[in-house]
Amino acid sequence: MPDQPKRRQRRADGELSRTRILDAATEIAAERGYEGTSIGAVSAKCGLPASSIYWHFKDKDDLIAAVIERSFGNWLTVWQLPDDVIARDRLMEVATGTAKAVLDSPDFLRLGLMLALERRPVEPKARAMFVQVRQRAFEALQTSIRDLGPALTEDQVSQLATYALAGADGLFIAKEIGGDTVDLVALFALHGQALYDTALRMIAENEQR
Amino acid sequence: MPDQPKRRQRRADGELSRTRILDAATEIAAERGYEGTSIGAVSAKCGLPASSIYWHFKDKDDLIAAVIERSFGNWLTVWQLPDDVIARDRLMEVATGTAKAVLDSPDFLRLGLMLALERRPVEPKARAMFVQVRQRAFEALQTSIRDLGPALTEDQVSQLATYALAGADGLFIAKEIGGDTVDLVALFALHGQALYDTALRMIAENEQR
Amino acid sequence: MPDQPKRRQRRADGELSRTRILDAATEIAAERGYEGTSIGAVSAKCGLPASSIYWHFKDKDDLIAAVIERSFGNWLTVWQLPDDVIARDRLMEVATGTAKAVLDSPDFLRLGLMLALERRPVEPKARAMFVQVRQRAFEALQTSIRDLGPALTEDQVSQLATYALAGADGLFIAKEIGGDTVDLVALFALHGQALYDTALRMIAENEQR
Amino acid sequence: MPDQPKRRQRRADGELSRTRILDAATEIAAERGYEGTSIGAVSAKCGLPASSIYWHFKDKDDLIAAVIERSFGNWLTVWQLPDDVIARDRLMEVATGTAKAVLDSPDFLRLGLMLALERRPVEPKARAMFVQVRQRAFEALQTSIRDLGPALTEDQVSQLATYALAGADGLFIAKEIGGDTVDLVALFALHGQALYDTALRMIAENEQR
DNA sequence: TATGAATGAGGTTTCATTCAT
DNA sequence: TATGAATGAAACCTCATTCAT
């Protein structure tokens, strides 16, 4: 009379539970944003009671911040700025890589941008974390752009990096809204080209002056 | 709660109340997004009881949709695509005008983008309304771009329009995150130039082939 | 055709609801103290849903403070310090009256003393209100004692008033713990006598010195 | 959470943990009462996980009872009724000693009185324990008072003891509310004197009759 | 001699909404 | 043209407690 293995999963497997919670929270938060992510919904999706979520995370803010943190880790493994290519190919390559990264893990960006846009009285830890992550991407872009040539002023480098990031954000949104009608890879290529041309034009203008 | 002694301009009060509610809702929704906007908070901010909000608007969805609708009206008065300029100045002019429009009424864009990013099970009317408004802007851009020259394919026109819009969205976000460190006018000029150059390059390539 | 007054009690009868809530809250709070009074229990006892309690009171703190406030009103109608008796009977009379007042409405005192004893990080409004009420009783006692004779120093007046109040509090507690084995009226008489004798002794000592 | 590297004094650690828990629980319970004392708060204050508290104590009731029990022990070492003094000094001496005891360990009294005042459906063990401790003090007082003279009836002895205790409780509360404005030692002296005078008056009245 | 992890019940409060007036 | 009052559902979070290790 071998009854089915009832699996009283009561043994301590905290790491797995934490992961399950984060998975559920990531999925929901990426779709509905901060306020739209309810602990109850996360609980329902991951199967653990709400009170168990509070064993692993101090509060909702802590949970969403952990979601951003982990998503950023995943994102980093996808979006690797190349270090050894020659200068003139750099921006194009970054553009293409970024297109792929955006396509591969849109959850991170969607949630991050939602957080970035919100202006609530007390800034959630999650937003701060995303902004900080974004700042790192910005600095990496500055470094890449600086390598294009010594003729660019720091202001120009910063402007180009801002424009590079803005294009990426905007194209992501275009894809979100437009769906399949938007060819993200082509658009990122276009963006990379535009950036490169703009940089060259700036360099030329600088030298002329 | 109503502290003024009942004035008797019965006729106009309805419209005024509606306006007060919309003002409050706009402010809150632009800061906190759809879920973050509670009827209670709107009521507290505009001074009218929650039940009065339901007299003016069917439900929360209807209220937020009205917010988008009215904001779009305001936006249109600020962002006027020029119809009669000669082709080569067109994009730059649009770019500069758009920069000003973005700076003037960020609430509309912030709320709209938040709505656009969210993916909730039943799409709010407000989101549909914003997407539709955006589509109109997209079409206006296409028309402008088409006027640059007959050599551009429809695919290219569409791509350029998408890129134009994406740049605007991205630069708006950059401004939201970066605050005073971001010079929106300069960046929109850069964006306009990049668009124009890209369009010219496309035309050249088309003719060469 | 007068049909039976079906009383769809949905019409606005806020004052009655408020009273029902306060009645329930008073009963529970007097038995269990601040923390022991849950909104859920009040809701169950008064029949209104918990959310309705929040229509009438801002939060739990506000509710308990209102309980104290109303109870104090009731208490005042029971405990009236006599204003026109001659000096030498005054304390005894007050003592007897206080005994009756304590016996008549123990809820106010029990809750008040519980609040007074607690030392929570943020002092509840209810505690502040009770302490303030108590201060008024203290001042009334001071006035009464001052009338006993001009020979008492202010320090002595204050000390006697403190002792008078302390005796009342202590006897109330004795009654709470001892129940029927404690004859409150006799003890308050004893307390009044002791106070009076002490006052006389003080006066005598003052004059001797 | 446990940051010290596991020391191996296995033997003594049990008792030490118990003490740490009791210390934390005493502090919290003396400030917030029974319901206000949560296992989580005790755990946070003493640094041991909640489950460890349940290893040392059966449940919350057991914990608070242990707090009262230990506090009473400490109290007894402070408040020693003199056994060998002559009758007429006795009450005064007790009064002064009690003032000091009250000043030295207010936590015990505060918690005890809070427990005594509460009226919850199932009486906590801690309340029963405090009431029983109090009964012992009551009996000691009776013995002391009885020694004042054989002329006092048992009713009078009981009444005087009740009044003695009530005064102590009331003065403690006065101190709790009034803080530094209350001179406890002077008031306890006054109380002792009043008791002594009252006793003498009773004896005189008895003999007169 | 502990403790990490879990859990159901219940805590306070806010939610969107309705309805009688 | 409003609004005072009510309401069930759900929000976030804490509760006392258990149990396998």
From TrEMBL, chains A, B, C, D:
Residues 15-75 form the HTH tetR-type domain. Residues 38-57 bind DNA. Keywords: DNA-binding, Transcription, Transcription regulation. GO terms for molecular function: DNA-binding transcription factor activity; transcription cis-regulatory region binding. InterPro entries: Homeodomain-like_sf, HTH-type_TetR-like_transc_reg, HTH_TetR. It comes from Mycolicibacterium chlorophenolicum. This is HTH-type transcriptional regulator AcrR. The gene is acrR_1. The keyword Ion transport does not apply.
